[in-house]
Amino acid sequence: MRKLIIGLASLLLVAACSKASKETKADEAAPAPAANATAAPGAATPATAAPEDTGPPISGTYTANGKAANLTSISAHADEPFSGKPVTMIVFTSQDHSSNPKPDFDATFGRLGDAIVVKVHPDGSIIGTEIVHSGMKREGAVSWIGTLKMEDFRTGGGQISGHLTSGGPHEVFDDQIAVDLKFHTAAPK
Q1: For 114, which DSSP code?
Q2: Segment 52-85, tens digit of pLDDT
Q3: Main-chain phi, psi angles of 30, to 5 degrees
Q4: How far is CA 14 from CA 129, 160, 173, in A?
Q5: Which end of the chain is more exposed for a tag (fewer CB within 10 A), N or C?
Q6: Among 182, 145, 147, which Cα is nearest to 163's?
Q7: Where are the domains of the chain?
Q8: Counting Cβ atoms within 10 Å, is residue 11 exposed (0-12), middle (13-18) or buried (19+)?
Q9: Rounded Cα–Cα distance for residues 39 and 33 (Å)
Q10: What are the CB-based long-range contacts (under 8 Å, 24+) for 29-33?
């Protein structure tokens, strides 16, 4: 019962965070960055540069209390806009979810093994994250806001890539969580 309550609370939080204000108008949206703008080191790259798509789709580590997850499946999906900006939802799981119509939902409820669901704006800024890991003391998904960063985020040529990192281990509800993942996958259609 506790797992269900934690899962539902996490899902409600994600739903509340992913809804854009109906009063937001297109003319209030932030202007797109200039084509010749130079990004600061570690900042996201505008959607003009094609990502490198060599190597495995996911590489790096995702650990909870020293236990490593083996994330093997990744996908990117268009999500509801937030603050007048488009949102891409990236789903990392330890089980294949390529034929799953709602991998974020099943990942959040632990049906796809260890998982991370991260929502990003086009500039790579993270607006929400749900984590599930068999090494955590509690069962179910946990919302993790403010610590994870997206570096080298790129879209182009039908691909999306980046580096999702926590910058080392961090305490999340009495668990030590660390994320250091490089990825590439097909961009949402």
Answers
A1: S
A2: 567 899 999 999 999 999 999 999 999 999 999 9
A3: -65, 145
A4: 8, 22, 18
A5: N
A6: 182
A7: 2-20+42-186
A8: middle
A9: 10
A10: 29/84, 29/85, 30/84, 30/85, 33/123
